[in-house]
Design a protein that fits this description.
The protein is of the alpha/beta class and 128 residues long. 45% of the residues lie in helices and 20% in strands. Helix 2 (34-43) runs parallel beside helix 3 (60-70) and helix 3 (60-70) packs parallel to helix 4 (85-94).
């Protein structure tokens, strides 16, 4: 079972994402901001990170940069509100493998997760 870390500051959104992923066979970890999210990545085996961009404490762009630097093979999908398209483009430039503009249908999320996990490359031995 693949483990996905959701980094999202809005509790209701975190719960909804968690339900969608668990219903579709994923193990889920959560964090309310990037600072806690980075600790979770360091302490837990995570296969993919799903992060919001605009959050308190440690925002998503900073979080993406830190994860890419320490865990270059770990796929990251960024999420942002519909009025924050430049932030989504920045997330992709910083190393996110894809992005979603909120609100998005569960099918879009699951499709991007499937694609990101299918294309995940193990940097230690070059295998998928």
């Amino acid at each position: 079972m693949k483990t996905i870390l959701i980094i999202e500051d809005v509790a209701e959104a975190r719960k909804a994402l968690c339900r969608t992923l668990e219903t579709n066979g994923y193990a889920v970890l959560t964090a309310p901001n990037g600072k806690v999210g980075l600790c979770r990545v360091q302490d837990e085996a995570v296969d993919l990170v799903l992060t919001d961009i605009l959050m308190p404490e440690m925002e998503g762009l900073e979080t993406i940069k830190a994860i890419v630097k320490s865990y270059p093979g770990l796929p990251i999908i960024a999420m942002t509100g519909s009025l924050s398209e430049p932030f989504l483009q920045a997330a992709l430039a910083f190393g996110a493998v894809s992005g979603l503009t909120k609100p998005f249908p569960p099918a879009s999320l699951l499709s991007q997760i499937h694609d990101a996990l299918a294309n995940k490359i193990d940097k230690t031995n070059g295998t998928r």
